[in-house]
């Protein structure tokens, strides 16, 4: 696998944008790493990097070559996973890109259950949204993506979807806690804590607010679910999430329960006439055969969602 090692060097330099930083990460000297790059460029007959004062950057040939490298590594991981399965011991490494929504409850529980059966499988999780998650699939930095936003790229294959109604989360003694549903007009005069603009939850809220022309008192924005949740203990306010992040109703959207979420808070669904339901997309790269470990874990995610939300999963 010496050739694969050389390919890994190119990939690390591309990611770091610096031969010196890549050499530190690879625990070799900058001189040795630069010599290895020059040898590969000589074999290919093309330069792969532009040498800049502050580092290096892939040129067009380099971008093509690095995509080939990542495909090679992905194929090798798939083959190694298949070989490991022959022995009855599932091994592998699963890379996931996901928004904070799925990272809070769904993925910790699903991964722990999977690893209880297959402890030799490791995971890497990156918190990202929308287009960034799609890019990670294309660059093979993610095997699976969970995206609560419209899918924009043609290279993304949607294995399953889950409909989710936005929930308004509030202190249990809040005046709106007695409502079965929350309308946008009910939020007038309330202090709101909103997720940042790249969040699918925020995009749905903004669309509803624009359509209803409701002015809101937004006191802060954050991309941290935990921060927004904890903030409500110190200042009476409202924030918004989807059921998979809070366990609302144990799968019965609109029940308003917060299963293991926070005993001092309750969740009430937004009126779908004001804020449309959103869709969580469970995706992988179109045309890619996933390694066994990733493929089986993808099946587990879909099974878990179907068991919890039997009326809201499409496959």
Task: Categorize the overall geometry.
Answer: elongated
Q: How many strand elements? A: 13
Kindly report the average pLDDT value.
87
Euclidean distance between termini CA atoms: 39 Å
Question: What is the compact description of this entry?
Answer:
Helices cover 42% and strands 22% of the residues.
Write the layout of secondary structure elements.
Layout: H1 2-16, H2 19-26, H3 30-44, E1 49-52, E2 55-58, H4 60-86, E3 92-98, H5 100-104, H6 106-117, E4 121-127, H7 130-138, E5 144-147, E6 156-164, E7 167-171, E8 191-195, H8 200-212, E9 217-222, H9 225-231, E10 238-241, H10 243-246, E11 265-269, E12 278-285, H11 292-308, E13 313-314
Parallel strand pairs: 3-4, 3-5, 8-9, 8-10
Antiparallel strand pairs: 1-2, 5-12, 6-12, 6-13, 7-10, 7-11
Helix pairs in contact: 1-2, 1-4, 2-3, 6-11
Please give a structural write-up.
The chain is of the alpha/beta class and 315 residues long. The protein has three domains: 2-66, Winged helix-like DNA-binding domain superfamily/Winged helix DNA-binding domain (Arc Repressor Mutant, subunit A, Orthogonal Bundle); 90-162 and 279-314, Periplasmic binding protein-like II (D-Maltodextrin-Binding Protein, domain 2), CATH 3.40.190; 166-276, D-Maltodextrin-Binding Protein, domain 2. The protein has helices spanning 2-16, 19-26, 30-44, 60-86, 100-104, 106-117, 130-138, 200-212, 225-231, 243-246, 292-308, and strands at 49-52, 55-58, 92-98, 121-127, 144-147, 156-164, 167-171, 191-195, 217-222, 238-241, 265-269, 278-285, 313-314. The radius of gyration is 23 Å and the shape is elongated.
């Amino acid at each position: 696998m010496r050739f694969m090692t050389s390919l890994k060097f190119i990939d690390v330099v591309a990611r770091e944008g610096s031969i010196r930083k890549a050499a530190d990460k690879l625990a070799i000297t900058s001189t040795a790493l630069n010599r290895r790059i020059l040898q590969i460029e000589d074999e290919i007959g093309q330069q792969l990097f532009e040498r800049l004062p502050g580092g290096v950057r892939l040129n067009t040939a380099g971008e093509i070559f690095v995509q080939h490298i990542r495909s090679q590594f992905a194929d090798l991981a798939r083959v190694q996973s298949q070989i490991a399965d022959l022995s009855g011991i599932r091994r592998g490494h699963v890379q996931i890109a996901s928004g904070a929504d799925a990272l809070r409850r769904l993925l910790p529980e699903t991964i722990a259950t999977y690893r209880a059966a297959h402890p030799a499988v490791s995971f890497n999780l990156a918190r990202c949204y929308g287009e960034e998650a799609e890019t990670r699939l294309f660059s093979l930095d993610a095997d699976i993506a969970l995206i609560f936003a419209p899918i924009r790229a043609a290279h993304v294959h949607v294995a399953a979807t889950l409909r989710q109604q936005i929930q308004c989360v509030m202190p249990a003694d809040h005046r709106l806690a007695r409502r079965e549903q929350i309308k946008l007009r009910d939020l007038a005069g309330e202090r709101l804590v909103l997720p940042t603009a790249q969040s699918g939850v925020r995009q749905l809220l903004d669309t509803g607010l624009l359509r209803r022309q409701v002015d809101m008192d937004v006191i802060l924005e954050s991309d941290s679910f935990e921060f927004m949740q904890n903030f409500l203990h110190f200042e009476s306010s409202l924030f918004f999430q989807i059921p998979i992040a809070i366990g609302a109703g144990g799968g019965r959207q609109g029940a308003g329960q917060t299963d293991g979420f926070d005993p001092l808070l309750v969740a009430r669904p937004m009126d779908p006439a004001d804020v449309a339901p959103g869709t969580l997309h469970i995706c992988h790269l179109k045309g890619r055969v996933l390694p066994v470990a990733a493929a089986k874990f993808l099946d587990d995610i879909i099974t878990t969602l179907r068991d919890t939300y039997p009326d809201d999963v499409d496959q």
